[in-house]
Structures are given as structure tokens and as C-alpha cells.
Amino acid sequence: MIKTLIFDFGNVFINLNLEAAYNHALEKFQIESLSEEMLGFNSFYEQGLISTEEFLDFYSQNFPNLSNEELIDVWNYMLKDFPKQRLDFLKELKSNSNYKLILLSNTNALHIDFIKTNVLFFDEFKDCFDTFYLSHEINLVKPNQDIFEFVLNENNLIAGECLFIDDNKDNISTAKNMNFKTWHINPETEDVITLFETKKTYFK
Predict the structure, then answer these.
(1) How does pLDDT run across 43-91, given as a tens digit for each residue?
(2) Residues 178-183: what's their mean pLDDT?
(3) Rounded to 5 degrees, what are φ and ψ at 21?
(4) How many CB atoms lie within 10 A of CB 69?
(5) CA 94 to CA 19: how far, in whole Å?
């Protein structure tokens, strides 16, 4: 029996374009691929292990021709629209069900600042959740098992009573191995608002 719904944020509620963002970064940086050091700094930032200032300083040193504003634009390029019907779905879920609702997102301060500025209903969205976990605030990231253990322990949950919804295959794999029910959502063909139709076997 499902008692808790755990949602990812990107490509579940807010649309992302990861491929376009990656290609845009390569074009702006005039490089063929991101270095291991760059990927490492990106990961550190997502885990909240370095500050926004340290993150931007690293990129400024590597690409001194770009301003901080340009670097921030490159970093936020992946963030697209947040369809209002997904908020409506979530609000109805909050009002008309007894499910515990949790958000669990790999993100960072710059992305959240951008979203707060550009998604006018962000506070309304956040208020729909019982708990709201952002990787850079809890210093843990998916797909590592410890972030799932953290959520279970903090909320006194049983994995088998939780449905975890994410677009990332590795995140889903970890959750499955820990006995979570899962929905590996395909943002190209599926929408979270069809949850109870798409995964109806979980809610019988």
C-alpha cells in the first residue's frame, strides 16, 4: 500500500532541456567536452560543498572572457517552463488525499534562485509538500543510497510503502534496489498529472 509519494523536480514538474544546455555550454566555452574538473565542481556545487561564489570563481578563472552574468545564464540554460496543470494536479492531490508528499531534487542555489524569480507560483508549489529536500541544502545527492536512507529515516518511512518518481535511470535503479515502488517517467511522452492512470496498479 502506497502511503508516500516522493517526486523529483526537474522533468517531473519543471521542464528541462539537458542536451540543449550541454551543447550551449560547449559553444559558449568554445570547448569540445566538459573536463573532469568541471564535472567535479558541478557535483560539489550540487551537493552544497562549495558556495555560489566559489563555483563562479572557478568558471571565471577558466573562461575569463565571460562575465558572471553570462556564466549564470549558461548554467541556468537547461531550465524551461513549469506547466500550470502540474501545480493544479499537486494542489488537488494535497487537498483530496492522505498521501505524504515529498520533493527530492538534485539542484543548486543558482537554479533555485532562477526558479523563484521566474516561476511565480514557486511558494505555492513548495507549500504542497510535507517535506522539501534540495541536494545542496542537505549535502546529499541522488543516485547515492544515503540520500534515500536519509529520507526514510527523517520521515519514519518504509521503502515499500513509497512511490518514487524520477526521470533519471540511475536514481530509479537505486530506489528499486532499496525496495521503493518506482515510476521512471519519460518526460517526452509522459506527464506526472497522469500518475493514477499510468501507475494504477500501485493504487488498487
Answers:
(1) 999 999 999 999 999 999 999 999 999 999 999 999 999 999 999 999 9
(2) 98
(3) -65, -40
(4) 8
(5) 33
Residues 121 and 70 in one domain: no
- Residue numbers of the domain that contains 157: 4-16+81-203
Cα–Cα distance between 135 and 10 in angstroms, integer? 13
Same domain for 35 and 86, yes or no, is no
Would the pTM of this model clear 0.90, i.e. be above it? yes
Query: Phi/psi zone of residue 11: left (φ > 0), alpha (ψ -120 to 50 degrees), beta?
Result: left
- Name, in order, each residue with C-beta under 8 angstroms of 75's C-beta and a sequence gap of 6 or more: 110, 111
Give the CA distances from residue 191 to residues 29, 36, 97, 163, 177, in Å, rounded to whole numbers and listed in that order: 34, 34, 19, 16, 24
Cα 67 from Cα 28, distance rounded (Å): 11
Res. 23: pLDDT tops 80: yes
Residues ≥6 apart with Cβ < 8 Å to 133: 102, 103, 104, 105, 147, 150, 151
Does 173 lie in the same domain as 111?
A: yes
Among 29, 54, 76, the domain boundary falls at: 76
Of 76, 95, 119, the last residue of a domain is 76
For residue 204, the model assigns a pLDDT of 73
- Cβ atoms of residues 133 and 157 within 8 Å: no
Instruction: Round to whole Å and give the CA distance between 13 and 122.
Output: 11
Cell triple for 120 = 511565480
Domain total for the chain? 2
